[in-house]
Amino acid sequence: MLLVVSLALAEPADMDCGLASLSATSPAPFAVDVPVDVIPAGLLDGGTCGGSVWTGTLLLGDSVIVTQTQSSEDGWLLELDPGAELEPDTEYLLRFEPTDGGGEVSEVGFTTGRSEEHTSELQSPDHLVCRLLLEKK
After folding, report:
1. What is the DSSP letter of 49?
2. Which has the closest alpha carbon to 86: 27, 134, 19, 7?
């Protein structure tokens, strides 16, 4: 009796690939008092079948502050440099989405803190709040 064994090798397209995802962000979700000079970033995960192309966007309301597209093959860290300080005491939204069809859109909100300039102003003995605190001592 002759026993024939055949092996079928799956093509990469036939493999069950893990979906691309966003592993982590900076600032973290729901972060508050984020420094106004932050450069938001996302740590990408291209899934188990290789790289993905991602678009990251920093939004203030409906306004786009900066958008950046990058292949995960070019690096796993997608930075969104706004080019200037963000507004103090303001809510922002980070949106990361794979643009090649695999994976899910991720959105992360964060709130900036007071700017150094504003904080220094509050600490001045000439500022009303600071004067009241000093008078209480």
Report:
1. T
2. 27
